[in-house]
Amino acid sequence: MNATNLSLALTIGVLYACGSYLLMQRALLRVVLGFVLFGHGANLLLLLAGGEARPVPHAGTTAPGEASDPLPQAMAITAVVITFGTTALLLALVHRAIVLHGDDLHASHTLPPPAGKGDQP
């Protein structure tokens, strides 16, 4: 593993860690940002799985063994499109929650606290 792969792996780990932290927040906008960070980490993971950069696979100009594999790049661009569409949907839902409730906090913050032993007469 060379220094580039190591730094990319650490970056992916940081993106996943920050994304999982934001996904556990009560504010819906932070949840959306956590999902976006997860998407960026997944895209980098797909590009890292593709291996090192090699010549473009043109027919007749590059030997089949020397050409780069286009599948990880195709999967990464598909993941970008899916992440973009899902992010747009989540942002629309957050906007609707803000319009209806006035804030973007999850509904669980309005629940009454559980009754304890000292609350009973």
CATH architecture: Orthogonal Bundle
Mass-distribution shape: elongated
Q: For this structure, what is the CATH class?
A: Mainly Alpha
Specify the helix fraction band.
Answer: 55-70%
The tally of helices reads 3
- What is the third-level CATH name, the topology? Helix Hairpins
Q: By helix and strand content, what is the structural category?
A: mainly alpha
DSSP, total strands: 0
Chain-averaged pLDDT: 84
What does this structure look like?
It is a single chain. With 121 residues, this protein is mostly helical. It has a single domain, classed as Helix Hairpins (Orthogonal Bundle). 61% of the residues lie in helices and 0% in strands. It has 3 helices and no strands.
Name a few traits of the molecule.
Helix Hairpins; 121 residues; elongated; 61% helix
Break the fold down into its secondary structure elements and pairings:
Layout lengths: L2 H21 L4 H22 L21 H31 L20
Helix pairs in contact: 1-2, 2-3
Short description:
By secondary structure, the protein is mainly α. 61% of the residues lie in helices and 0% in strands.
